[in-house]
Write a structure and sequence with these properties.
The protein starts with a helix and ends with a helix. The chain is built from 1 helix and no strands. It has one domain.
Length: about 40
């Protein structure tokens, strides 16, 4: 694997982590809105 390839994978992984974090955030927000606490 070339270095550029690895760097691209790094960026992809970072983006996936970001998307996962946003997903968790939205899920938590939806749950709180549903139950009305907070």
């Amino acid at each position: 694997m070339s270095r550029a390839h690895l760097r691209r994978f790094d960026v992809l992984a970072d983006r996936l982590e970001l998307v996962a974090a946003v997903d968790v955030d939205e899920t938590r927000t939806a749950a709180v809105a549903e139950h009305g606490d907070g």
